[in-house]
Design goal:
Chain lengths: 205, 118
Amino acid sequence: MGSATSELPSHRTPLNDAAETGLKIVVVGGFGVGKTTLVRSVSEIRPLNTEEVMTQAGVGVDETSAVAGKTTTTVAFDFGRISLNERMVLYLFGAPGQERFWFLWDRLFSGTLGAVVLVDTRRMDDSWYAIDRLEHHRTPFVVAVNRFDDDTSRYSLDEIRQALALPGHVPMVDCDARVRQSGKDVLITLVNHLHEMAIAEEATL
Amino acid sequence: MMRKPVDTGDPDRLYTVTGGRSRADESFDLVTLIVSESGPVPGMQSEHARILELCRHPTAVVEIAAEIGLPITVVRILLGDLLDTGRITARHPRAARSVASLPDSALLQEVLHGLRNL
């Protein structure tokens, strides 16, 4: 058993025995944008790391199909956990935005409440693809701008909204992914948005 | 954090763990909570025994995968074995089943309440 997925020591904090409902929120963003930092700042456990393997048979058509023979690609992701009450537990996933990851979206993240697109203003191009894919999967999302210390450009949220061609109904929020309260505020912004959407949807029934 | 993907290290291991099977039970969501209904017994495959130990308290599928260091698909196969023999029960998420539909506002209100109280 030499190839352990995670080198973290295994001192687990078990869930409440009454826990019955697991929920998912996904944080998507480019490399180094602070996904793991955000997950860590709000999680009740040290973020864990796991992976899914993607084979030709499991994924349909992708770039690996061109390669002859058995092809397996691994997609790794981090996650943390928040016990909301005795019965409900929220899992927060930090997901890489790269192309191959989206082939696994349905298998891993169907039924997710929603997503946070974490944006670094120095590399905004990385966010385009994630936003496009979330819209394609019809997953509700908010955009959180991680303001790094050396974020000298200081684009306003309005400027970033324009740069990303974000529709007006998508909430945007500034954050510091290292700060727990700030991370909480991002999640609350997302769930508030989902709640408003659900109320509007129920009103039409 | 530098890590070595399990499949590049030893693909044969995954084959051995699952007895050559590659089709997983898709009903196990990442956040389905698994609870053991009995302890490990002598002669049981070590991965099965490990899962039963872990799930003395409710444990999400994704946490099981992280703890035992195996990909999600492999864990789903192993959980299928344990479910078939009645050694575990599964508490499936009640949130929206289809990708595009929202959960109801009452559930979201509970989530908001939980987040605000953190």
